[in-house]
Write a sequence for this structure.
């Protein structure tokens, strides 16, 4: 294994959905990937041409430009363009907005993964009927208004490929291949039309060994499902769901003008994320950035109602929040401060596990010896702006306006040494907050230096690890000996706190193991996977822990959204009696997994021997 392929492997292990691939398929990707360099302004993908690669940005910024000269921007770990590969035609032009390095995966390997790996396929192709039924049942909210007003003609419509019904199957397939189409419109002498797809060819020709000289009209579906190009895109969605189909024929004045594919319709639904990202990137004032950031809550709600997995939602939210923080820092801080500091987000934001905006958790590390007369006022402006964006102040003061979390690298190093020597009180939890830090802006080498200081401070310190890990046992699991829920008797009467009772023990227990094994990743699920790879947690238990934390984060997201809609305080309390039977059973199972994990942590770190 070369150093180069090792770098590929490390980078891809942090990028969805490659990080979820089984080892054999992951290695296949590593073997077939290359790195390409582009100067600012270089065209990476030309509109209308056949794509050759799937790109993942390693460094730099890429701009996507559509036919109307609208732009979207993609940054590090973003990828493009799955839709073009699936359509075998570049929809838009992609060019380097600055000096850029991209990992380039050959098209055929990407398409193989789509066919072979269900999770990889589902990442790019949601199952429409399953994902959208919940949306329709719950009603359409404010964030769907734009989608409902969009016309079919505003979406990507593929040109129709026509053949006469007497054309042999062999010749018809040749036409499909030449036109790079997945479907054919078959025309009959009576003026009628029918549709043939790749699925029809597989099911009606290949499997029954039908002669290739058979007329294509013999296998055609004559009942076409159509929609006029002036109709609303939402009605096309309803048609696809009602008939359980993946494409609908588009008419203009009764004549066939194209085919609307499921993937393109889904792209239109999800484009809100790209729009929000673009607005953040282009913001030139705090006010413009505030307007862009205000859309995030509606985007998150929309994705949750579509049934998108909570891990993808929290990752997207984390990415958008990070970009919001970065842009705000660039807007309010002088370049001298930016060049001599590193801005970090901490806690659940740092782990990319935050559901909705709760309180701020951020910090700044300064270059040793650097001072600036405006530092305090800049940090106050930064914090006040975040408050106006909907990020409340942290009750514990973990913010850049607090000098305790805004100091030099050497000052952090001295503080870390004290935390390790005296791990009682708040010291261990302060260490926990900082070990989850993720880089946002400024000089990344300062952030990397701080992480190295943290890991060096606790190297082989078993006593610290034990004192650190025992915090996972602070809160009782709210489940009785007879598997009944233990709820509050006053205050939050009949409710229980899922953060204290389940989320925190898993997060902190996993964090303790990750620290012991010097893992660089901060996300809890990623940490569990790496611990499994190292043999620290066996595969069955790792799977249970991942399922447990995924369920808990999904439940918390739903609770937060419901409380947000009712203008209630967003907290982590849930009333088990308001869950359905299935959810209650799952929550009981999760609490049992938490109890087992606590026992594992107790045994692993020998906590019975720690006072």
């Amino acid at each position: 294994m070369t150093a180069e392929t090792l770098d590929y492997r490390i980078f891809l292990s942090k990028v969805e959905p490659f990080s979820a691939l089984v080892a054999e398929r992951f290695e296949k990707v590593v073997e077939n990937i290359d790195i390409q360099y582009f100067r600012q302004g270089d065209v990476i993908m030309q509109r209308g041409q056949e794509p050759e690669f799937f790109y993942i940005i390693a460094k730099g910024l890429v701009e996507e430009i559509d036919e109307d000269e609208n732009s979207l921007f993609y940054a590090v770990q973003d990828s493009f363009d799955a839709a073009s590969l699936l359509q075998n035609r570049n929809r838009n032009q992609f060019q380097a907005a600055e000096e850029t390095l991209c990992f380039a995966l050959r098209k055929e390997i990407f398409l193989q993964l789509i066919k072979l790996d269900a999770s990889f396929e589902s990442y790019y192709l949601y199952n429409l009927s399953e994902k959208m039924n919940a949306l329709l049942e719950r009603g359409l909210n404010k964030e769907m208004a734009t989608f409902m007003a969009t016309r079919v003609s505003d979406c990507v419509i593929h040109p129709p490929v026509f053949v006469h019904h007497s054309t042999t199957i062999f010749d018809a397939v040749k036409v499909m291949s030449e036109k790079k189409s997945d479907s054919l419109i078959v025309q009959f002498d009576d003026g009628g039309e029918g549709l043939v797809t790749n699925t029809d060819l597989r099911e009606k020709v290949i499997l029954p060994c039908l002669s290739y000289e058979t007329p294509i009209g013999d296998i055609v579906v004559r009942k076409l499902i159509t929609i006029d190009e002036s109709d609303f895109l939402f009605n096309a969605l309803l048609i696809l769901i009602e008939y359980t189909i993946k494409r609908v024929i588009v008419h203009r004045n009764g004549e066939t003008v194209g085919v609307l594919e499921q993937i393109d319709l889904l792209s239109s639904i999800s484009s809100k994320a790209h729009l929000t990202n673009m607005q953040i990137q282009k913001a030139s004032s705090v006010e413009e950035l505030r307007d862009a950031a205000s859309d995030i809550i509606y985007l998150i709600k929309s994705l949750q109602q579509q049934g998108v997995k909570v891990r993808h939602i929290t990752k997207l939210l984390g990415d958008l929040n990070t970009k919001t923080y970065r842009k705000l820092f660039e807007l309010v801080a002088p370049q001298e401060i930016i060049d001599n500091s590193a801005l970090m987000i901490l806690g659940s934001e740092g782990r990319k596990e935050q559901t909705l905006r709760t309180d701020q958790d951020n910090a700044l590390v300064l270059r040793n010896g650097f001072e600036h007369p405006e530092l305090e006022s800049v940090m106050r402006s930064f914090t006040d702006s975040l408050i106006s964006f909907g990020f409340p102040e942290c009750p514990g003061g973990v913010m850049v306006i607090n000098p305790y979390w805004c100091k030099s690298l050497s000052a952090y190093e001295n503080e870390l040494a004290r935390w390790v020597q005296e791990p009682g009180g708040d010291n261990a939890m302060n260490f926990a907050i900082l070990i989850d830090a993720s880089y946002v802006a400024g000089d990344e080498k300062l952030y990397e230096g701080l992480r190295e200081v943290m890991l060096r401070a606790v190297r082989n310190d078993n006593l610290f690890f034990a004192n650190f890990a025992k915090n996972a046992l602070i809160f009782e699991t709210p489940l009785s000996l007879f598997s009944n829920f233990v709820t509050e008797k006053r205050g939050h009467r009949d409710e229980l706190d899922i953060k204290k009772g389940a989320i925190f023990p898993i997060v902190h227990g996993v964090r303790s193991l990750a620290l012991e094994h010097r893992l660089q990743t901060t996300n809890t699920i990623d940490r569990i996977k790496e611990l499994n790879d190292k043999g620290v947690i066996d595969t069955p238990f790792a799977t249970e822990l991942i399922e447990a934390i995924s369920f808990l984060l999904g439940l918390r997201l739903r609770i937060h959204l419901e409380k947000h809609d009712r203008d209630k305080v967003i907290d982590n309390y849930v009333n088990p009696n308001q869950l359905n039977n299935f959810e209650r059973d799952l929550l009981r199972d999760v609490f049992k997994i938490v109890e087992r994990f606590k026992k594992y942590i107790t045994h692993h770190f020998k906590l019975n021997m720690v006072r």
